[in-house]
Amino acid sequence: MAGTIKEIARIANVSRGTVDRALNDRPGVNKEVAQRIKEIARSMDYKPNSVAKALASRNRQFVIGVLINSIGNPFFDDVILGIEAARQEIKDFGFQLKMRKMRGYNAKEQLELIKTFVNEGIDAFAITPVSDPMIRDALNEMIADGIHVVCFNLDLVGVNYLAYVGCDYYKSGETLGGMIGYITGGKARLGVIACTNNLEGHRMRVEGCQRVLEKEFPQSEIVEVIEAEDNDEIAYQKTLRMLEERKEINALCFNAGGTRGGLQAVRDLGLEKKLDIFTFDLTPAVIEGIQNGIVKSTVCQQPFTQGYQSIKILFDAVLNDVIPENDHLYTDLSVKIKYNL
Question: Domains plus CATH for the chain?
Fold first, then answer.
């Protein structure tokens, strides 16, 4: 089988962009390095990809649009690091990455941003989608017009995307339920600080937790679920109210963002040692909470990988016409406690 640019880059110990420049006699590559790359390519019977040739002959860059709900949510910092790492790898192939950020999960605002990307002209699109029919329809219209789409971090049923890249939310909820059951001795009275009800994944996370508690720990129950919209101030006020009104609560779960504000409410009420607290992800507030003994454990979902893989999937689809074999690429779940941070 003929070699690929990826294999040539590995053998030559250079980037794929360097291989591409050398094989196409573009500037920026040391003469000896370029010669060695060409010799490796000949020995591997490398044949230039027709799509790559078409890319090289175009008069404009290919554009990958990214729409991410990251403003005010530190979880997405590592997702963006993954996106930026992928951008560095693909920029030499004539790709431009255009990112827009939004706060929260307002479907109408997200729809307007999607329209902006379409009007500007993009070739591929990565998005953390709001669970709303008009977002689903807008993405399917893009796909019908030939724009490749990947959903990352949040899935959206009914979209004909290349792939969803992110955690299995139901399984992450089951993992949470198991931790809560074991640590509370199967007698949890749980308060959940969720994000918003218009995110299918986060609803599934609560459902997964509830199923495990009902099946494995029948003396446990979810007392109340509040929506904090990934907002620290809202999480603070609603957590404060819930704990003041529901004295039976002995455990808390922060299902998404807003963790710093919610933990501050716990401290202000002096309940740090009276509550078993569980979280998701490794934001600075969670790390601090675990180190201080306030947070018992957290479930992580590889945010860097989510960002990185989403861009690389779109890149491979445009450059090499490669489609993922599986349209659901779940990232690994891991549990962190004080002793394995």
Answer: 5-48 (1.10.260.40), 60-167+303-332 (3.40.50.2300), 169-300 (3.40.50.2300)
